[in-house]
Description:
Blueprint: H1 2-24, H2 26-68
Helix pairs in contact: 1-2
Amino acid sequence: MKTILISRLIYRLILWSVVIYFFTTTAGQFFALLFAVLLFYFVARFILALVWRLFVGIVFVLIIILLIF
């Protein structure tokens, strides 16, 4: 059991070292830039969807209030 944990630790260390080396290369930096742009895009879409739902909800409540009075 301990051998499996040690081999997993070594595997993760090798994986992280490969990832760190990749991000230090030019292709890795372009990949990181692309990843940051995509992350910003999805966060912006998520916020826009939340704001849109909030706006539609407020308008719906206002229409109901206007219909009641």
